[in-house]
Amino acid sequence: MDYKKLAELLFPNNKLTVEEIEKKYPKRNLKQGAQVTRFAPSPTGYMHLGGFFQALIDWNIAKRSNGVFYLRIEDTDKKREVSGASAIVLDVLGSYGLTPDEYEMKGGVTVGEYGPYYQSERAEIYRAYAKKLVSEGKAFPCFCRKTEGLNDVQEKREKNFAAGKIEEKDPCRNLTIEQIEENLKSGKKFAIRLKSAGDGTKKIKFKDGTKGEIEIQQNSADAILLKDDLTPTYNFAHPIDDTLMGTTVVVRGEEWLPSYPLHAEIFEALGFKQPKYIHTPLIYKLNEKGNKNKISKRKHPEADMRFFDKEGYDKEAVIEYLINLINSNFEIWRKQNPTSDIMEFPFDGFKITANTPIFDFVKLNDISKEIVSHYSAEKCYENLLFWAKNYSLENVQYLKNEREYVTKILNIDREKPKPRKDIYKWSMFFDLYDYMFGAPKKFEIEDSERNNFETVLKAYKKYLTLSSKDAWFENVKKMAGELGYATDNSEYKKNPEKYLGNVAKVCEYIRVAITGRKNSPDLFEIMNLLGEKEVLKRISLIV
What is the pTM of this model? Predict the structure, then answer.
């Protein structure tokens, strides 16, 4: 068959050649060891936690090697595209400090020389390479009425291999040029398929950045490269884009592993060198029964990265938690370097844990508490106000008007050798410190303790002083002794039956009266902020 004639028949209007294209995409001028990574999501509505997990790996590999991290939007599937989705992706990346070095805003600015960064704007490029493959006898037109999409091809292929079957070749690969011409004249649509050289009997080996040496069945599917509207499949577009854009490392989910043989064959057919691949494990979550479920938006609101903003999670905490899932040695490093900048951690994109990461809010909350505990009160205030401006408008004016008071609340038990660790998301502030904005309505006190509780409060009205912390505590001790409470804790431990309790119990009663709770930050600082008049008022509401 005259393949060059066939290529002209199929692509009569496509005059751009691959030689012309490749002149527009010169090899990147990078320092030794610099890596080029890309985050290439489909614009389907939101930034998925799993996608962000991969983008974080991409960013770290690029930045720590003085390389390039770029954003490419894979928007060729127009049926699934959601308007504004790519802007959401860029906003989320930027808000976490992961702004790409190269990107394109739809209808706006383009940063970088290797665009367009939307696949839908690169259609002529894909057609040029498809035309080249046809001209070399490596691809052919398929006129079948129903042509499988990407997922159908993969599913069929995996089922056949599981059953020990060899992939059947597409019948259109045997059409004569006369039959093809007849189909074209009758107006039939065609897809372009790869003319696979595989027979399904051999295996290929490759080294994955996470899983190491892998042996897998070679490709034998005549997979679709261009659909019948001449838009590319992911299988075809990404080898072209990654090569032209100079990608050196591809980070993607392990669900793509079965597709590797097909991608390897397409790279080979195009004459391209493959980048290194890192197939990351998917993120799971345990359900109430302890079973693992893949994180999904339908079941888990945290699948959408905007969830963490809405809840008020500290961005540094989210980043640190995900790094902890990515590199298993991070937790040990953090314990040894509790206050070091995370960029000092020796991140290694090729030492990603191969174990299934389990998303755990308890762990995230603990990490967030630790990070927030080291913030200044002023930084906490700014973060709280920023969150409120986006998600709690009813509190914005109060926060602005009472900046000094709110900052003092945030400073209780802060900037100390052992700072308090209670805040892990900004949305909890007003509930956590509700007693700083009004007298409590509920009290954590047992019915059996009610009489002692009220007796202490009646006496405390006479002993209250906020002149200094030492003076305040001395008065509490004096009152406690007069009421039958031990003022020496060692003595109380020896003979507890002789006393109603110790000074700590007396302080607990006062704390419950002021805050409604048995546990709170420093009691004296709370009362000092509220003022003596407010403290007496709250006690008087009880006794």
Answer: 0.89
Tens digits of per-residue pLDDT, 64-101?
999 999 999 999 888 888 888 999 999 999 999 999 99
Bridge partners, 204 (sequence order): 216
- Greatest CA span in the chain, whole angstroms? 111
CATH numbers and ranges of domains, the chain: 301-432 (no CATH), 447-540 (1.10.10)
Name the DSSP letter for residue 191. Answer: E
Q: Are 134 and 127 in contact (CB under 8 A)?
A: no
Which residues, 6+ apart, have CB-to-CB distance to 526 below 8 Å? 412, 435, 436, 514, 515, 520
Residue whose C-alpha is closest to residue 226's, from 240, 208, 214, 243: 240
- Check: CB of residue 35 under 8 Å from CB of residue 67: yes
> What DSSP character marks residue 342?
G
Provide the phi-psi class of 66: left if phi over 0, else alpha when psi is between -120 and 50, else beta.
left
Is there a contact between 274 and 286 (Cβ–Cβ < 8 Å)?
Answer: no
d(CA 218, CA 228): 26
pLDDT digits (tens, 9 = 90+) for 233-251: 999 999 999 999 999 999 9
**Residue 266 and residue 274 in contact, taking contact as beta carbons nearer than 8 Å:** no
Contact 124, 105 (CB under 8 A): no
CB distance 191 to 149 below 8 Å? no
